[in-house]
Amino acid sequence: MGQRYNSNFLRIAFALVSILLVYYIAAQIVAAATIFEVLLGLNYQHGILASVAVIALYITMGGSHADIMTDGIQGVMMVLIALIIAVIFFMGVGFEGTGPSLINDALVKQDPSLGWDNYFKEGDILFGSFWVISLIFVAHIPFAMNPHIGKLAFALKDPKQIRTFMLIAIPVGSILGFTVLGGLHARALFGADIRPDAAIPVLFTQLFPPFVAGLLG
Questions:
Q1: Cβ distance 77 to 69 under 8 Å?
Q2: Fewer beta carbons within 10 angstroms: which end of the chain, N or C?
């Protein structure tokens, strides 16, 4: 931004904003370490070191360009995974039969409060209305405005393309809300003992061949 508009103020401002991304980066490292642990059986601490090493390597070799390219690839994979999660959820994969009702029945057996009969139930803090539930998807829309995604827009050569970028990024970002279904699916299959941040990797390792699970993970 500073280079595009020849502004030292923007250079400093965006440098300061980028400091806030440390939490996002930490979340990425934790997620990668969890995948290494679940899919490859690697020690969690070693997974963190491996994740940091990989990130440092491609950033050192390719700079911002490498960062932008890998973010783009990761984004495509995230949307694909969200859609796959939605499909296997509504098909009830992993249960005898077809349909999401199988998942709901399994959840109710574990805890009646987890069943979708509680959705839209007046007074429920989390699922008391359609609008509250829809916020799961709406909450993902601002992801399209986050600094780490905004930098992709700023990398466009033609500023006129930014509008098109945002029109695509915002609805696509809302698709990521489907990942919530993966947590429900994993809970239904594996019970309350499953670690929340490992739910989707474990789900994939149980439902797909190792190669596919590793690719999606």
A1: no
A2: N
pTM over 0.85: no
Task: List CB contacts of 138: < 8 A, sequence separation 6 or more.
Answer: 174
Q: Which whole-number Å values give the CA distances from 151 to 26, 27, 33, 198, in the listed order?
A: 18, 19, 25, 29
Q: Which residues contact 29 (CB under 8 A, 6 or more apart)?
A: 48, 51, 52, 55
SS3 content of the chain, % helix, strand, coil (to 5): 75, 0, 25
Residue 177 neighbours by CB under 8 Å, 6+ apart: 82, 136, 137, 139, 140
- Quick: pLDDT tens for 79-108: 898 999 999 999 999 898 888 999 999 999
Tokens of 157: 């050569």
